[in-house]
Amino acid sequence: MLIALFTILLLGGGTTSVLQYIGDAQDTVKIVIPKGDEQKAALSTLKAMKKRTTTLNKAAKQTAKEIDKAFGDHDTTAADLDDIWDGYFAAVDKYNHDMLNLRFELKESVSREEWQQVFGGE
Prior knowledge:
Layout: H1 2-11, H2 16-32, H3 37-72, H4 78-109, H5 112-119
């Protein structure tokens, strides 16, 4: 149990706050941006962001299970643990890269004023 809690602490315990933030942004886009191609593009990008976040959450849960199992196996080597962590960090790196690209994509699909209304001037 202690190992599982430690693993969750290291992995961040999921990113439900990011999912909530994206969900709130989707709701605001529906209010701020008039229906049409611009709104569809913004919602499509936010949907892709939500999907990527969900995928990362699943990777974090899988990594936690793998680490918990590895700690229970006395034959596990440091190289085995490094492989697990390397896979997780590669997933995080890909997530960060994808989210940054999606953010730029989103910025291109809305006006400056709409961006400020949706995200509060971020």
